[in-house]
C-alpha cells in the first residue's frame, strides 16, 4: 500500500497569505497525484489532477507541483472561501489511497 | 450536468449487510468511466472502497474485499454497494463518484455525490 503523508495537519492563515501543503508518498508514484478540497458537510471537489493540471473551473490561485514522492499544493492569496480540508490522492497503484488531510482555517 | 445521488438506509445493525445505491443523471454509465465508492468515518479521512466499469469489471480495496460487492445496473443508470458483516467501524459517510480511467489506470474522481451517512448500531 502506498502511504501518503500530508503536512501540516492544520494551518491557520490570514486572507491574502500564501498557503503551501505538502504530500509525501511512501514510494515513487510519478505524477499520479491529485488534490481535493472538502468544505464542512460537503463532498470533496477535485482541484488538481496529475500533480499540476488544474481541473476545469478551479480558480487560478490553486496550483500543484511535484513528481516522484514529493508534491505540493499552493494557494496563492488565500480567500475566506478557501477554508476547508485538503486531501491528496494517489492513483499509481490499483489500491487507491488518500492522505490524512490538511485543515486550513482562516484567521 | 452530471449528478450522482446516494440512497439507502441510514441505520444498519451490526453483523448485517449495508446496501447503498448511486443513481447517475446527466450521463450514461455505459458511455465510459469507472464508478466508485469512497467512505469517510466521522472526523476522519477518505477511504476508497472500490470501483466498477459498466461491463462489470471491478477493483476493490483489499482491506474490504472479502465483505464488499459492487454491481452496476445500466438499465437504471445506477450502481450499488453491498458491505456485509458490518461493525461500528463501518459507520461513515459513504460517497459515490465518477472515476476517470487514464491509460488503463484508475485515476481521479471528477464528480462526487453529496454523500449519505450510515450508522451501524443496534
Structure description:
The complex is a heterodimer of chains A (107) and B (122). By secondary structure, chain A is mostly beta strands. Chain A has strands spanning 4-7, 10-13, 19-25, 33-38, 45-49, 53-54, 62-67, 70-75, 84-90, 97-98, 102-106. In chain A, the strands form two sheets. In chain A, strands 2, 4, 5, 6, 9, 10 and 11 form a seven-stranded mixed sheet that branches. In chain A, strands 1-3-8-7 form a four-stranded antiparallel sheet, with no helix packed on it. With 122 residues, chain B is mostly beta strands. Chain B starts with a strand and ends with a strand.
Features:
heterodimer, A: 107 residues, 11 strands, 50% strand, B: 122 residues, mainly beta, seven-stranded mixed sheet, four-stranded antiparallel sheet
Q: How would you concisely characterize the structure shown here?
A:
The complex is a heterodimer of chains A (107) and B (122). Chain A has 107 residues and is an all-beta fold. Chain A has strands at residues 4-7, 10-13, 19-25, 33-38, 45-49, 53-54, 62-67, 70-75, 84-90, 97-98, 102-106.
Question: Mind sketching the topology for me?
Answer:
The complex is a heterodimer of chains A (107) and B (122).
Chain A: E1 4-7, E2 10-13, E3 19-25, E4 33-38, E5 45-49, E6 53-54, E7 62-67, E8 70-75, E9 84-90, E10 97-98, E11 102-106
Parallel strand pairs in A: 2-11
Antiparallel strand pairs in A: 1-3, 3-8, 4-5, 4-9, 5-6, 7-8, 9-10, 9-11
Chain B: E1 3-7, E2 11-12, E3 18-25, E4 34-40, E5 47-52, E6 58-60, E7 68-73, E8 78-83, E9 92-102, E10 105-112, E11 116-120
Parallel strand pairs in B: 2-11
Antiparallel strand pairs in B: 1-3, 3-8, 4-5, 4-9, 5-6, 7-8, 9-10, 9-11
